[in-house]
């Protein structure tokens, strides 16, 4: 048998859980919890879950910022009548 893989870092999983709670992102929170649970038993799967969670968080953040900017442009271009 080959050498065992070192355990994955718990820091990334914990950070993902915190970000999931603060940003109300359920999918990121679930992936963070799954990653934290699998750190000792399956480090490769834990790293993969953590990576997927961070990617989804980044995509969600970019979409949220684009939505806010788009909303400001729409609001600014709408004529106001009093």
Strand content is under 5%
For the record, give the distance between the C-alpha atoms at the N and C termini, rounded to a whole number. 78 Å
* Distinct helical segment count: 3
Secondary structure: helix percent: over 70%
Which class do the helix and strand fractions yield? mainly alpha
| Elements, N to C (H/E) | HHH
Outline, from the CA principal axes? rod-shaped
Q: What is the β-strand count?
A: 0
Radius of gyration over alpha carbons?
Answer: 19 Å
For the residues shown, what is the average pLDDT? 88
What does the main sheet amount to?
A: none
Low-confidence stretches: none
Question: What this model shows, in words?
Answer:
Helix 1 packs parallel to helix 3 and helix 2 (26-37) runs antiparallel to helix 3. Helix content is 73%, strand content 0%. The longest helix has 35 residues, at 43-77. The model has no long low-confidence stretch (mean pLDDT 88). 22% of the residues are buried. The chain is mostly helical and 82 residues long.
Give short descriptive properties of this protein.
mainly alpha; single chain; 73% helix; 3 helices; 82 residues
Topology at a glance:
Blueprint (H helix, E strand, L loop, with lengths): L9 H13 L3 H12 L5 H35 L5
Helix pairs in contact: 1-2, 1-3, 2-3
Summarize the structure.
By secondary structure, this protein is mainly α. 73% of the residues lie in helices and 0% in strands. The N and C termini lie far apart (78 Å).
